[in-house]
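User: Show me an example of a complex going from sequences to structure tokens.

Assistant: Sure. Here are the input components:
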Amino acid sequence: MSVENIQKINFEFREKLNSVAEGFRHNFCYQCGACVGDCPANNYSGTFNPRIILLKALLGMEKDLISPDSEIWNCTNCYTCWERCPQDVRPIDVIIALKNLCQRLGQAPDIIHKISNSVMESGITTTVTSATVRRREQYNLPPVRDYAVDEIKKIIGSK
Amino acid sequence: MMTTKYPWFEAAVRKTTAVIGMELVDIEGFTCCPDPIYFQAYDKIDWYTIAARNIALAEAVGHDIITTCSGCTATLSEVNLTLKKDMELKDKVNKRLKKIGMKYNGTINVRHAVTVVRDDIGFDRVAETVTRPLNHLKVGVHYGCHLLKPSHVMNVDDPDHPTILDRFIEATGAKPIHHEKTLLCCGRACMTDSISSNMVVDILESIKANNADCMGLICPTCFDEFDTGQIILGRKLKRNFSVPVIYSFQLLGLAQGMTLEEVGLNMHKVKFDKILEAVPA
């Protein structure tokens, strides 16, 4: 193999990842693989692998990681990798940082925007319907409260 | 999710905790925690900020936050613990909260209702409130991820050998059944349906193989995945799983003599009635 074909580490991407909350943790991964054995997404997909995701982050493989179809979206958010990691890398937190980066770069799947918009526009992730109101009455529960949307709008999105 | 989609879970919590001697206080102005999956994936700093606002509301009245949903517990516990330790982040969040005249101080704790039941009330006291012991009912335990992990954040139980739900179920007179997939994730957050579907099928089959009458859990998102999810999956795979799913506080409600309707079991997609024939009236 000629020297020209050797892939170089994309440090620019790693800097971008460092700038997102908890993204810096990827720097401490020494690729031991403790995160893989009990990862349900790994056991059930055969393709999702938290160690490989961390390796790609270390190499700065932006194209593989930053897209709505990236393997990162198959994470089940079970937190087992955080539990197992001897280095406190918290692979799930790096995956979440990668997801935040996708969102910033317009590469997050629609469902992320749909649910987040609901929180920003109504204060909750689900929708209050007439059935909600009726059922809460039926079970003698307090009525749905005011979800302080105005306050939420004031405290989010400021960089 | 519980407020809007599963209000009968909330009813079961309010009714049963009153019987065992827990006083709950509603706090005005709470919003979505927000959820630890989609909103955290959107923007973690916004996620910290909205959660900190909710915690600050509880701080203002001097109460711990008691959660009844594992996802809410995950968000509020992680944010609370992180902000208590990370002063730089706390300042950043407080700068945002200042815009609405609020401040996060880090003076309270976030606790899941089942830990309050275990640690403050005690399962013995819970058992004393049981008027209709659910003897003969075998409950396949499903812990779900966010009640337990990350363990030093959640501070609930040993994530690999948990007992809290087993003991909760035992207090109702029912028999908790551990099965091969007791600790497997429900898969809900995974964006590829086929991956999560296979997890759901394995868990349901594991429960059936161990002759449990139903599945007992504590997380409304897991519930969604196993109740409605079971029907959708059954249609797709042309299979009838017939594993009724019950939220732990509904189980306690039944044991305290409440009716199927009072705890909302008649609202579940997979019907529960037949199972109760085994329970003395």
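The lines above are the inputs; the final block is the predicted structure for all two components together. Chain B touches chain A through 56 residues (CB under 8 Å).
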